[in-house]
Amino acid sequence: MTDANRVGLDLGFIRSRIGIFKIATWILSLVVLIILSASQYWSRPGSGALVFAHFVATFVVISQLISIIIYLLKLYNLPLIKRLPWKLMEVGYALLCAVFYFIAMAILGWGAENEKLYVGDVEGGFIAGAIFSAVLLVGFVLFAFFTFRSDSIRSQPDGSSGPSNVST
């Protein structure tokens, strides 16, 4: 079994296009989650629709963390997981997240307008959440496009994982 087909730490993932994307979307989704959690929207009547935006941020944070672990440890080389259509799954996941963030952006925009009726300045958090949701929406659409056009979604070789075949 070659080194590329084994499970183990893949530091090349961090510098690959998919690694940079997954880490960036994880951080931005974590920011949205923190913003929504700090707003305490659930304590105000009529704010139940904002739960969906909170769900989207939580879903992406957890699923991207699982995906980062799968790619970082090269768990996609396990026999059962190796058979899955990774490219199709990544494109589908990115488009699903884009649709989710589009809906969340609309709900957060509505929530910012709706929350002006109450005492306190929580609509700024909703506006920030809507802006981050728009950025994540564009990011997921671009990632789906580039993943669909690419040949492989695996990370690039680290270059320091073993001896190189250089003639002397």
How are the elements arranged and paired?
Layout: H1 12-15, H2 17-39, H3 50-72, H4 79-82, H5 86-114, H6 123-149
Task: Write a short abstract of this structure.
The protein is mainly alpha-helical and 168 residues long. Helix content is 65%, strand content 0%.
Q: Which stretches are low in confidence, meaning pLDDT under 50 for 5 or more residues running?
A: 156-166
Q: Into how many domains do the coordinates divide?
A: 1
Question: What integer is the average pLDDT?
Answer: 78
**What is the overall silhouette?**
elongated
Distance between the termini: 27 Å
The total of beta strands comes to: 0
Radius of gyration: 20 Å
- Oligomeric state as shown: single chain
Q: How many helices?
A: 6
Q: How would a crystallographer describe the biggest sheet?
A: none
* Helicity range: 55-70%
Proportion of beta-strand residues: under 5%
State the order of secondary-structure elements, H for helix, E for strand: HHHHHH
Secondary-structure content class: mainly alpha
Features:
single chain, 168 residues, mainly alpha, 6 helices, 65% helix, disordered C terminus
Task: Describe the overall structure.
With 168 residues, the chain is an all-alpha fold. It has one domain (3-149). Helix content is 65%, strand content 0%. The chain has 6 helices and no strands. The chain has helices spanning 12-15, 17-39, 50-72, 79-82, 86-114, 123-149. It starts with 11 loop residues before the first helix and ends in a 19-residue tail after the last helix.
